[in-house]
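can u do me a favor
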């Protein structure tokens, strides 16, 4: 007997026109979330959830991904069973010009200083 077909997994994302600067800044205030954003920016490609180098457990990292997604900073999507993450760079630049590059640069300077 054939297995019943299931709907493709989807992830909801906010319209950035409805995301406030306050919400984005609150998402980016956490050092783990800044680390995720920095790693995505440095990779220059989409990354699966399990490839991030962070000091937190997988379940805690899931919380951080959700916060970033709900603030419109990242987009998540499935390829098979793998959930991939990408920065919403162009959309963020249009809504909050210069914010993501400034955060990534400041995080790099802070990391270099120890």
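np, heres the sequence
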């Amino acid at each position: 007997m054939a297995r019943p077909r299931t709907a493709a997994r989807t992830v909801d994302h906010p319209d950035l026109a409805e995301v406030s600067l306050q919400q984005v800044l609150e998402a980016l205030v956490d050092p783990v979330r800044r680390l995720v954003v920095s790693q995505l920016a440095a990779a220059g490609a989409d990354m699966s959830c399990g490839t991030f180098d962070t000091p937190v457990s997988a379940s805690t990292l899931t919380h951080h991904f959700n916060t970033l997604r709900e603030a419109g900073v990242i987009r998540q999507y499935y390829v098979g069973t793998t959930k991939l993450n990408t920065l919403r760079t162009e959309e963020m630049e249009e809504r909050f010009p210069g914010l993501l590059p400034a955060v990534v640069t400041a995080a790099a300077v802070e990391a270099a200083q120890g």
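The longest helix spans residues 99-113. hope that helps!!
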